[in-house]
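Reopening: structure tokens for the magnesium ion complex, inputs below.
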Amino acid sequence: MSGESLQLITVLGSTGSIGVSTLDVVARHPDRYRVYALTANSRVDLILPQIKAHQPRYAVMRDEQSAEQLSAQLKAGGLTDTEVLAGEQGLLDVAGAEAVDSVMAAIVGGAGLAPTMAAVEAGKKVLLANKESLVMAGDLMMQAVKHSGATLLPIDSEHNAIFQCMPARYQSGEGLGLAAEGVRKILLTGSGGPFRQTPLDQLSAMTADQACAHPNWDMGRKISVDSASMMNKGLELIEACWLFDTGPEHIDIVVHPQSVIHSMVEYDDGSVLAQLGNPDMRTPIAHALAFPERIASGVPSLDIIATAQLDFEAPDYQRFPCLRLATEAVKTGATAMVVLNAANEIAVQAFLDGRVCFTDIPVIIEHVLTTMPLVEPSTLAVVQEQDLVARQMANEHIDRT
Ligand code: NAD
Ligand code: MG
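Re-run output (same inputs, fresh job):
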């Protein structure tokens, strides 16, 4: 490939689990990709070796003090080719910069909303890992995609699998709707997480480390807790509704403990297409980076003989009340999804900090969902304000109880 076709990439959240996997794939293809910017919240120790390896034009630290520290360390090490930016404005700048071709949106939680939107509004190829931003502002983000001509490609393994199984017109952003394209339904799979078989009366005693010990995937702590509560599948149900322009009635959630099938699409003629592979995020990352081409990701071949068995179960809504809350929120519409996401983020952080127990998570979310009046999420400012109010309400509830 010639130097002219090198693609410049911004990795938002480069020090996280998805960020690290992204840089692993990028490093395998120096003839195709160059890193334009790396960003992190505060971990100077983690971003420094990434800067040394990838020599980006910019490095952004969300936390201003960390930006100063990083600057000093780069100067001391003679790494003066990388300019350090700070704060949210720095994130927005590198997400929407003219020179950038692709943006990996891999910041965790609502903190990723504004930078992800900046990349979409600038018409970039956006690789979306940050599902919370789409859950919060799905309508606005999908409108912005149409308006700017951005390409939104799902990194979440299930949505990437669904995308791969979808008709060609859906893949090129010209789908006429599931029914018109001959799609009967989507089967969204999930492993059921570490507590799928834990006796119900023991759930309240589960620790943060137990919740983060996912049987198949190695992920950041927030999404790991979401997987244990199956809020992750609830957020993914909402994510799928926006990405594939459909409603929850056309999406079946299927528990599949081996995480080998990453999701399926059923057609009117009875065909069910599935995408399979080892549970390694480098596969969807490589797929989206190179789409519509295919490149090596470093993921070994799936040993289907060793896999031997694929199991399927219906989801257990009694064990996983978060799944019910998310399903209700998408049906309610308006800002219910903003509130659901915000209250969940606060409840999960409180659980990780040891301030509440695992089974308090859905209780806190339901309290906020049933207390806050809903409004139409007509602008990003409304979404951000509702997000803030829901966070305050969740925190107050935790402090009181
Ligand atoms: P992580 O916790 O490992 O990494 C999060 C990244 O975001 C870090 O680089 C961190 O510095 C940055 N960050 C955190 N708070 C920030 C803030 N306030 N401002 C700016 N940057 C901030 O998370 P992860 O597991 O890599 O997940 C990232 C996103 O990808 C999440 O939305 C998650 O749901 C989604 N996702 C992850 C996986 C996975 O396998 N890890 C799979 C599917 C989807
Ligand atoms: Mg997923």
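Residues 181-278+306-400 form a domain with the Rna Polymerase Sigma Factor; Chain: A fold (CATH 1.10.1740.10). Residues 209 and 352 are 8 Å apart (CA to CA). Marking as resolved unless the reporter disagrees.
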